[in-house]
Amino acid sequence: MKWIYLSPHLDDAALSCGGLIWEQTQRGDQVEIWTICAGDPPMGELSPFAAELHRRWQVGVEAVARRREEDLASCQVLSVAPRYFPLPDCIYRRAGDAYWQSGRNTPQNIELPGVFLYPDYQAIFGPIHPLESALIEQLADRLGESLPSDAVVVCPLTVGGHVDHQLTRLAAERVQRNLWYYADYPYADDFVQQPEQIERLSPAHSVRRTFRLSQPAIQAWGRAVAAHRSQISTFWPDLETMQAALQEYYVRMGGAVLWSPADSNIEDKLA
Ligand SMILES: [Zn+2]
User: How many domains in the chain?
Assistant: First the structure.
């Protein structure tokens, strides 16, 4: 079987589904992780918000290149092939910027060139900026022309509501595919006691499917997350705490969970 996990940022698929992906590749499935916001920051000044984040992360303009290197190591742990889209993270995006070499790529608003669209925390967890409606279409076009028809495509539910996660889901849903979904970790960890908060994000008639992971799979999940070195301190004080948190999340969720379309007939192959 062939699986493609759509990852809004470079660490989302590893964080949310690393254990399951490892089990799938061990079993001989072909898995790819497609990261949507893997592009370099545009030329020019960063927003004060992005500059502040860079200071806190102790990185310079090479931040994204370094994160792609970390991701390659993570993909190696999971035996998956990565694919990177050229869109920058929302903290870098400005009105009027173009991200694709060809195709539908009209500047979104030439009256406000250079205005930062997500200048603070509130913005990155708010609604998608109206100027980015064309970007959703462009991304949907790229996904539509690149996704192989024989792959199961797995998309984030957008637990936590980050705009890049919303963008990924909206674009994926424009493409006529029977999508599967995953809960965005670690955001989803805040809602394990209120599963209805996660369920309400799953499409009507989708089916919650639970998969058992072996201990080696949970260990590999930890190694895949650990490879994203620069991100660890955002969530955990150290690697041991991270590994314990993954294990606990797995237990509290009752397994590794995906939501599939109701009419999917491939579950027998997943046992
Ligand atoms: Zn993310």
Answer: 1
